[in-house]
Write a structure and sequence with these properties.
Alpha-Beta Plaits; 18 strands; 6-stranded mixed beta sheet; 5-stranded parallel beta sheet
């Protein structure tokens, strides 16, 4: 099928010359001697490609390009800007205006034809109907349209600049979220808005921050629905919310008209999300500026996630991927205080690899490291997401089991002991038997401090090691597992 090309140039000589070249190459060519006529011809004929001069009176090629590319009806038509301008800024501006190619008028005829054929070959099929409408506008109408496009571009660039200025607050999450809310509140209409930054640390609670005038119960429900929308299933104990500030809007109690939750990702990596809630029926996704907002939030969330990754590396043991000893004290103190405050159970387990010195002496430190790594993997895979595991010493591992009584904690700890005992360790085709011992303590005992809780688990481990190894012992009470 013959491809139709719309040729636009205010020079009759150039117009005739180019039409002759393109016609001889087998294209159907229609022409316009200025941008106004060219735009009308584009609507009326829906060509497969537009070739336009840049320097034209009234409306230039850049503006013509922006007009066609900003209209859903014509934005898919490839545009080649053909001109004598050859500065880098000219090419840059032409491509930013939406042009698919920028060619010099001084190019050889064969080069122009080859470039056009290449563009047409890669362009999507032209399914648009020709002569769809007889469009006629005044020159003034086009200038109004151009000004609208330029105004929108200014709005978009201002939004982008405002968001990108927030990069200085990446390490101050509270300030960052507050500034994001200020921008959102000046652009979008809503009753409540929520922002979530996903941490690289999976053990960290999922925090959702609102600006809203709603009461605590309503926000609690919105928080759960927000995270359920993003993660599917999530433990209520693993999420929390806070209100940054109230909106200036009058709160409406009926918020079911619009409830939009958008997860923000790069590939499969979840960076965070935004939630918008309003009593009005608002189609946020159809708003031009909403895509800009999401793109800018993605950049900020990517930087924030990278920062949390860097921070995570400072508390992770590189060999085992367990938390390190430095982070252990902080978590144990925090979870102990939380358990005492809310009257919940907390258990600590101390593991030690039996006869580890002999393993190193007989098979080398490289094999010893592999044993530690595999035991750590077994520990991590056997605990819940709300539990914590630390490399406490060389071959010692400490686990914190939240909301777990002593008897409840013994179940996964015994499972870990059995898995290690049955794991197929091998060295030079020789099966190597590896076992662990463990001690468990719990806040069910009267304890005054997190340090005392840890000490009790350590003492129970000592008893397990000195009473035959490969067993789990509960502090003050023996549970034989061998």
């Amino acid at each position: 099928m013959t491809k139709k090309i719309l040729l636009i140039d205010d020079s009759k000589t150039q117009l005739y010359s180019l039409k002759l070249i393109l016609s001889k190459a087998g294209f159907e060519v229609i022409t316009a001697d200025n941008a106004i006529n060219g735009i009308e011809m584009a609507y009326q004929n829906m060509p497969d490609l537009v070739v336009s001069d840049i320097v034209m009176p009234s409306i230039n090629g850049y503006q013509l390009c922006r007009l066609l590319k900003n209209d859903a009806t014509t934005k898919h038509i490839p545009i080649v800007l053909l001109t004598i301008l050859d500065g880098k800024i000219d090419k840059f501006w032409g491509l930013k205006a939406g042009a698919d190619k920028f060619l010099s008028k001084e190019s050889e005829s064969e080069t122009i034809i080859n470039e056009i054929e290449e563009i047409l070959k890669n362009a999507p099929p032209n399914t648009r109907k020709t002569e769809t409408k007889n469009v006629t506008f005044s020159e003034n109408a086009y200038h109004v349209k151009i000004n609208e496009i330029l105004d929108q571009s200014l709005i978009e660039s201002t939004i982008m600049n405002d968001f990108r200025n927030l990069s200085e607050f990446i390490i101050n999450e509270e300030k960052l979220i507050s500034e994001i809310f200020s921008i959102l509140n000046s652009i979008l209409d809503f009753d409540s808005v929520a922002i979530f930054f996903n941490s690289a640390n999976e053990k960290k609670k999922k925090d959702l921050t609102f600006i809203s005038n709603q009461d605590e119960n309503e926000l609690k429900n919105l928080s759960f629905e927000f995270f359920k929308s993003i993660f599917g299933e999530i433990e209520p104990d693993n999420i929390q919310f806070k209100v940054n500030k109230n909106t200036s809007n009058e709160y409406e109690s009926q918020l079911n008209s619009t409830s939009l939750v958008v997860p923000i990702k790069i590939g499969e990596q979840l960076l965070g999300g935004i939630g918008l809630f309003s009593h009005k029926n608002i189609d946020y996704k159809s708003q031009k500026n909403f895509t800009i907002i999401l793109n800018e939030l993605k950049l900020l969330m990517q930087m924030k996630h990278l920062h949390s990754k860097t921070k995570l590396l400072t508390i992770i043991d590189p060999l085992t991927n367990l938390y390190n000893r430095r982070h252990c004290q902080e978590v144990v103190e925090r979870e102990f205080s939380r358990a005492k405050r809310y009257g919940s159970d907390l258990s600590i387990a101390m593991f030690d690899i039996d006869n580890f010195k002999k393993i190193n002496d007989n098979y080398g430190h490289q094999f010893g490291d592999e044993v530690i790594k595999q035991v750590s993997k077994i520990v991590l895979s056997s605990l819940r997401n709300t539990d914590f595991a630390f490399r406490y010493g060389g071959e010692e591992i400490l686990a914190v089991l939240t909301n777990s009584s002593a008897q409840k904690a013994l179940i996964p700890i015994e499972r870990i002991r059995a898995k290690v005992e049955n794991y197929p360790f091998e060295f030079n085709d020789e099966d190597i038997k590896v076992t662990i011992s463990a001690g468990v303590s719990s806040t069910q005992e009267e304890l005054s401090s997190a340090e005392a809780l840890t000490k009790m688990a350590d003492e129970a481990l000592y008893k397990a090691k000195n009473s035959g190894k490969n067993k789990v012992i509960l502090a003050e009470k023996e549970v034989i597992s061998s």
